[in-house]
Amino acid sequence: MTALPISRPILVRSLGEALAAAAAAEQAGVGLALMAPPAGGALWLLGLMERARRSHPGLDVTGLLDCGDRAGEAQGALAAGVPCLLFTGHAEAARRLSAVAEARGATLLTRCPPPLDLAAEGRGTDSSERLEALCRAWLTRSEG
Prior knowledge:
Elements: E1 10-11, H1 15-28, E2 32-36, H2 42-55, E3 61-66, H3 71-80, E4 84-86, H4 91-103, E5 107-109, E6 116-117, H5 118-121, H6 128-140
Parallel strand pairs: 1-2, 1-6, 2-3, 3-4, 4-5
Helix pairs in contact: 1-2, 1-6, 3-4
């Protein structure tokens, strides 16, 4: 499978959404960047990543945690092993966090492309097939 850059993250708020995204990525033959909302937390995101990997062993799964401007949360997420963080706080804090991220083999972003928000796009549906179709379209769309 080809690795998916963080250019197409999928914002998930449940295990069902994460597994639908993983199934779509596997079908499309691309990697998956799961993005956790600010309230998700590092351990929650790491758990989703692990479940997606267990369900789809050949899939390249990474995670992106939105820490907003909370430097302490970003520091904790790095310590927990989150591979990629979005931090939108003070530039000096971002510089320091970036150095910590680099030392841990992680990535710190100060901006990221808009994610596919499954809660917004898939509203009113409990259908994993519908969620998978949304994710597949997102992951395979051509850059326009």
